[in-house]
Specification:
Layout lengths: L3 E5 L2 E5 L8 E5 L2 E5 L8 E5 L2 E5 L9 E2 L2 E2 L4 E3 L16 E3 L1 H17 L6 E2 L1 H16 L13 H7 L7 E8 L5 H7 L2 H7 L6 E9 L2 E9 L1
Parallel strand pairs: 11-13
Antiparallel strand pairs: 1-2, 3-4, 5-6, 7-8, 9-10, 10-13, 12-14, 13-14
């Protein structure tokens, strides 16, 4: 009787001790995996109820267990796409640093609250644009507010029909800690001014790991 992992039509399945196909969470050799209701092993970001889980390309859960709940950390993804914008090349494999994005938002809003400013609201469209910009810089190997094609985030916002009165962008990168991107911005007067700008009410934060570096973008608007 066959047991364990089986590979059928480019999909991994797991057969239990009785030979039946498993579904849901399983633990194998110290790693957690998730099998959907067809038994197929999942990869990337999955949404279960109100929780987000990140699985690498091998299907292994990338989070640690905390108070019986998994918290998001990093997810390996093939690309970051935005409807209406060109599909980016896949010159480098990338991973989405979800928990770093959330931590940077928390740190920034703590600073704003201490200064008597309203916290910024995470905007889904700005989030997509910020992630797209970070991945754009990785895939095209540059670091600038203007792309090699001559575009910037404002032209992207206009292309997809996003309405705003004022907008701004912060970018930074390092090769050691994604959350440290916040300190890089905070310790720069111009970038700090963007984060503390009272005119802004919304933000998107995109932190991507690829080509041996963490690339971060903050996109602001009102």
């Amino acid at each position: 009787m066959q047991k364990g992992w089986v590979y059928v039509n480019e999909i991994w399945y797991y057969l239990g001790n009785t030979g039946s196909m498993e579904t849901g969470w399983i633990k194998d050799n110290g790693h957690w995996y998730y099998l959907d209701n067809t038994g197929a092993m999942k990869t990337g970001i999955i949404y279960l109820g109100d929780k987000i889980f990140s699985l690498n390309k091998s299907g292994e859960l990338q989070q640690t267990l905390n108070n019986s709940n998994y918290v998001s950390n990093a997810a390996y993804v093939d690309s970051i796409d935005v409807n209406g914008l060109p599909k980016l090349p896949q010159n480098y494999s990338i991973s989405l640093q979800v928990s770093a994005e959330n931590k940077i938002l928390q740190l920034m809003n703590e600073k704003r609250t201490e200064a008597g400013l309203s916290p910024l609201i995470l905007d889904n469209t700005l989030l997509q644009i910020a992630r797209y910009k970070s991945n754009h810089m990785i895939q095209y190997n540059y670091f600038d507010h203007t792309t090699p094609q001559g575009n910037d985030w404002t032209s992207w916002l206009n292309t997809i029909g996003y309405r705003y009165a004022t907008t701004g962008e912060n970018i930074a990168y390092n090769n050691f800690d994604p959350v440290e991107l916040f300190n890089q911005w905070w310790n720069s007067s111009g970038h700090r001014a963007n984060m503390m700008n009272s005119s802004y009410t919304k933000v998107g934060i995109g932190v991507i790991y690829g080509d041996n570096k963490y690339m971060g973008t903050q996109t602001f608007s009102n």
